[in-house]
Design goal:
HCY_dom_sf, zinc ion binding, HCY_dom, 8 strands, BHMT-like, about 325 residues, about 10% strand, 8-stranded parallel β-sheet, TIM Barrel, methyltransferase, alpha/beta, binds zinc ion
């Protein structure tokens, strides 16, 4: 299990700006990143993933802060390593979609390769156990990520995005793309982000069938459905008008899955053959704990898993006052 979703959670907590979504929090408030790493481990994560998502050359160019590229990456790795060391969990590096890759333009391939090489280099120097390459919409870009991770002699988890149409932007089906990555040596392949449990689940079985390496599933915990299969596609008819009518990314709250939906997804995905679990943007520790428990685990946070038996109105325990139990239907 690997807890993710750092961007959205730290944005909600007021330490990261939505939009460019660059994790400057790593330098400005490392203690908040440390705390969230610990909370995800407490809730069941086996991996502490360095918060270097979007901490690449292109994003820092866009916000005009190229100068913090290396310090940000090194600090993120250090913060994650400290928590992994302190909790006995795995320590993972992270590279992701660049926004630069263009299948038709070989110059962009060189640029992407350079971006991945510097980030994977810093991760290798920090002593990561493996590198997660994630949120790739192009198979071509995922291949480059995998190539660079393998050149560094590191194990890899390579994750693709299944968008509105479940094919890569370079036109490959998810099973074929995952199979291609597995054949090129990826240790784990699968899907992350963008789709919620209901619209990611049907894609998983065919991927499991297509590959002989472990398959990963890290949906966003939002109630996507057949008509609106991604969190970008969700539309909220609620009372407050939204900019462009879009709840993504800062008004998705009404669509958040509750923990039991996450547990249900976990059991179904496991039955479909998924072996690497996690949650992406929007996830909070209670979701992760539900996932862990659905896998039969009892992470430290399970000590506080719900027990309504002594609730003042809903509890069935004889110590609960009867008058309050009877008042339940009038609440
Ligand atoms: Zn995500």
């Amino acid at each position: 299990m690997c807890g993710e979703g750092y961007l959205f959670e730290l944005e909600r907590r007021g330490y990261l700006q939505a939009g460019a979504f660059v994790p400057e929090v790593v330098l400005e408030h490392p203690e908040e990143v440390t705390a969230l790493h610990r909370q995800f481990v407490h809730a069941g994560s086996d991996v502490v993933e360095a918060f270097t998502y979007y901490a690449h050359r292109e994003k820092l160019r866009v916000i005009g802060k190229d100068g913090i590229l290396e310090p940000l990456n090194r600090r993120a790795l250090e913060v994650a390593r400290d928590v992994a060391d302190g909790t006995g969990t795995l320590f993972a590096g992270n590279i992701c979609n660049t926004g630069v890759y263009d299948p038709a333009d070989p110059e962009t391939h060189t640029a992407v390769r350079e971006m991945f090489t510097e980030q994977v280099g810093w991760a290798a120097e920090a002593g990561v156990d493996f590198v997660i390459g994630e949120t790739f919409r192009y198979l071509g870009e995922a291949r480059l990520a995998l190539e660079i991770i393998r050149e560094a002699g590191l194990a890899s988890v390579v994750l693709l995005v299944a968008g509105h149409e479940p094919i890569t932007r370079d036109g490959v089906t998810m099973p074929d793309a995952c199979s291609d990555l597995a054949a090129r040596g990826a240790d784990v392949v699968g899907l992350n982000c963008v789709r919620g449990p209901a619209t990611m689940l049907p894609l998983l079985g065919p991927i499991v069938e297509a590959v002989d390496v472990p398959v990963a599933a890290l949906p966003v915990p939002y109630r996507t459905h057949a008509d609106q299969p991604t969190f970008h596609a969700l539309r909220d008819p609620g009372p407050t008008a939204l900019s462009e009518g879009l709840p993504f990314p800062t008004a998705l709250d009404p669509f958040v899955c509750h923990r039991y939906e996450v547990a249900d997804f976990t059991r179904r995905a496991r039955a479909a053959g998924v072996r690497y679990f996690g949650l992406c943007c929007g996830a909070a520790p209670h979701h992760l704990r539900a996932m862990a428990e659905a896998l039969g685990r009892t992470p430290p946070a399970s000590r506080y898993s719900p027990d309504m038996s002594k609730h003042v109105y809903f509890g069935a325990n004889p110590l609960v006052r009867r008058a309050n139990q009877e008042f339940r239907s009038s609440l």
